[in-house]
Amino acid sequence: SDIKGYQHDYTNENELSSKIKGYQDGICTEWVQAGLDGQPNEVNLLNKLKVVSKSSADFEKANDVLNKIEQELAGWTAAERLQEVEDIVRTKVGNFSETMYVEQLRIKVDKKSLELANIRKKSSAMGLLLENIDEENKYIHKQLDSINEPWRGLLKRIVINPLIYAAPLLSNKTSWNKPLAKTSASIQEQDVDIAKIASEAQLSDLQLTLMLAMANKYHWTPWKALLLDDPTQHHDLVHAASVFDVIRDYIINFDYQVMMSTHDSMQANFFHRKLENEGVPSKIYKLVSRKDGVIAERIL
What we know:
alpha+beta, Rossmann fold, three-stranded antiparallel sheet, two-stranded parallel sheet, 7 strands, Chromosome segregation protein SMC, P-loop_NTPase, coiled coil
């Protein structure tokens, strides 16, 4: 039993010795990796600590110097920028002092501010004007819509072409975001400008009947009068008779006075007789050239 006890103690001491040897080898490896000379001992460690402490102090001093240099460089950079700004200001100011230059700038700013305020007022006024114009356009187009039927009724009495008197006449459309009234006729399911298919006489009839329809619906003046400049200049006598019938009815039925010019004496006489047959008084004057000028000479 004593031998077994000795063997057990030997085994334990051998294991402990192996562990200590492993610790020592690890310490030696770390010692070498730390750049320490010789074998690990307290004296060498303290000497190395003194060297490291001195190097650390030298590094802190060098870092302080570097920070001061960086601060001085930043100051120089700021000074250079300030100098650049002063040079720009000096160039702008010229012979004036900075105070006088700033005052001139203030005056210019005040002037431009006043101009801007005026522009904004004008812009606001123009906006209001455009709104009012838009409302007026809408109102005008509404009134034009109400003219179509009486206008068509007059056209049927004068123009025999159904493409014209059966056309949409005034149709309100929008072009480039603006209201547009135009006359058109439908040919093969396509809207065609009436001016492209109507004769000179038919165009005159379109204009005359529109004016007559407007005059009878909207009384612009207390004096119910029609001043017509050769409304049948492109008509033969047959077609002119239809126009004269409409004008005669306006005289008799709506109490209009008519002053009409014509280049055709035959048409003038024809209309005069038509009015006389209805008991409507009428007069015919002829423009005559004299030495002292042109006079109107009554012939009927």
